[in-house]
Design brief:
95 residues; 2 helices
């Protein structure tokens, strides 16, 4: 029989880090407006607008995937804790 070892600390750290990454990516949308006045040139403003629109699309897709990974990590953590609790209760009743 193979031993399965799950680190709750690693799963909790992963979920916390994914939330932090999600916040950082979400906050980048506010920075685009901050630099618009600094660009000056119409060509530069147009190029930045194109880049920002492309970035918004891909940032949104990335945010969806990070959120899904975070939810899966939290569900995995909850499931392992539940199994551990049930195993502990089963052993306690057997004694």
């Amino acid at each position: 029989m193979t031993d399965l070892k799950v680190s709750y600390d690693h799963l909790e750290d992963s979920a916390r880090n994914l939330k932090a990454i999600q916040r950082e990516l979400d906050d980048t949308k506010h920075h685009q407006a901050d630099i618009a006045d600094e660009l000056g040139s119409g060509d530069m403003i147009h190029a930045m607008h194109d880049f920002a629109a492309n970035w918004d699309y891909h940032r949104h897709k990335l945010l969806e995937k990070i959120q899904a990974m975070g939810e899966m990590t939290e569900k995995t953590l909850d499931a392992f804790k539940d199994v551990d609790e049930k195993l502990k209760n089963g052993l306690t009743k057997a004694e």
